[in-house]
Amino acid sequence: MSTKTENNERLIWMLYELEEAKEHLESLLTELSENEVITEEEFKIYMGHICAHLNRAWNSRNRETEVREENWEEMSKFPTDIEPIG
C-alpha cells in the first residue's frame, strides 16, 4: 500500500480516483433525490464511472508504472484480488 513517503505520485493518483468516484456518487445521489427517478441507462453510466474510478484506485495501489492509455482498460476492470462485502 502506498504512503506519502513511499510513493507520493501513487498516493496522489489514488486520491484523485477516489475523489472522482465520490463526485460521481454525489451527483447520482443528487439526481435521485431531486428527480426521484433516472433511466436505467443514466444509472448504468453513473455506476460505470463510479466503479471504474474505484477499480483504478485499487488496481494502481501497488503498481510501479503509471496508469496510461495502454493499460487504462485493464486498470478499470473489477479487481480479481478483492471480494465484495455486504
Describe the protein.
This protein is an all-alpha fold and 86 residues long. It has one domain (8-76). It is 62% helix and 0% strand. The chain has three helices and no strands. It has helices at 8-35, 40-59, 72-76. The longest helix is centred in the first third of the chain and has 28 residues, at 8-35. It starts with 7 loop residues before the first helix and ends in a 10-residue tail after the last helix. The mean pLDDT is 88.
Helix and strand run: HHH
**Chain-averaged pLDDT:** 88
Number of strands: 0
Total DSSP helices:
3
Give a quick precis of the structure.
By secondary structure, the chain is mainly alpha-helical.
Secondary structure layout plus pairing:
Layout: H1 8-35, H2 40-59, H3 72-76
